[in-house]
Amino acid sequence: MKDYKSILYVAAGACSYGLLATIVKFANQLDIHTGVLTFLQFFIGFLFLLVFNYFSQSKKTVPQPPSFAAKLKLIAWGTSLGLTSTLYYLAIQYIPVSVGIILLMQSIWISLIAEALIRKQIPSGAKIMGVLIVLLGTALSTNIFQETKILDGRGLLLGFGAGISYAVAIFSSSNIANQLPSPVRSQFLVLGGLLLIIVFWNVHIVQQMTLRALPWGLIIALFGTILPPLFFTRGIPKTGIALGNIISSLEIPVSTISAVLLLHEAVSGIQWAGILLILVAVTVINLRN
Asked: What are the backbone dihedrals phi and psi of residue 266, each rounded to the nearest 5 degrees, phi first?
């Protein structure tokens, strides 16, 4: 039986991620700029990881410090983290959070296709079935069968772009410079995301920065770049990747429920059915006989 504490760690990390979009959209409604929120999320998160790693390394000897090449590779791949947050937060300005999280989680099947191409292996029947269930769940969750409600195309494109970028971010988080401790890898990945955000938003960050944004930036950094990596690195090694992925899918209902409670978004029964199907798909893809 898996360590229940490890399961709770992974669940807490997933719930933290699930709250992000609702918090960002709520802050947007208070006239706090998306670029400022995204910048603060990664800037505060990077500073925390920098300090955390400094004190962690001061207490024990690091066998081998990261090479310049490893740092550069992590920073380069880490830009996908910044791009994911930027596209996702822009998407929910045009579409409901409950739809945005579904588009973000298209990374499930995008990652499987990418893995098949990289490894040159045909996915198993269970994985193919899981992809089909994800696509059906997406159709239901985004309510495309309801003709009276048309979703903004800009939000759909941005949300799907976030899903592609998220798939790249998942790959980089699990395959780049694995010889380094997770907090050290996270530090340079987040730095890469921070640099992309600075380039993307540039002068808007300075122009829109206000003192009112700081508390919100701290909250988003806490739930987006501080707590989840700590929870996941503590829990996933003991739960295993398959069970970890299943538990992490809690991000979908948490994001939807928080949007309903805090933003008063309407979610129909057919959309909940679609969300359930996606959760089933994650289970089918990850569970093995």
From this structure: -90, 130
Which bin fits 288, alpha (ψ -120 to 50), beta or left (φ > 0)?
Answer: beta
On the question of pLDDT at 243 being above 90, the answer is no
- Look-up of token digits 């910048």: 39
**What's the Cα-to-Cα distance from 237 to each of 7, 63, 240, 245, rounded to whole Å?**
10, 20, 6, 12
Phi-psi region of 22 (alpha: psi -120 to 50; beta: other; left: phi over 0): alpha
At 58, is the pLDDT very low, low, confident or very high (cuts 50, 70, 90)? low
Query: Mind listing the pLDDT tens digit for each residue in 198-240?
Result: 999 999 999 999 999 999 999 999 998 888 877 877 777 677 6
Identify the pLDDT of residue 156: 92
Which of these, 228, 231, 109, lies nearest to 167 by C-alpha position?
109
Full residue range of the structural domain in which residue 78 is found: 4-286
Distance, first Cα to last Cα, the chain: 16
Q: Quickly list DSSP for 59-83.
A: HS--SSPPPHHHHHHHHHHHHHHHH
| DSSP assignment string, 95-143 | S-HHHHHHHHTTHHHHHHHHHHHHHT-PPPHHHHHHHHHHHHHHHHHTT
CA atoms of 33 and 213, how far apart (whole Å): 8
64-85 average pLDDT score: 89
**Which residue type does 37 have?**
L
Burial of 261 (0-12, 13-18, 19+ CB in 10 A): exposed
Number of folded domains in the chain?
A: 1
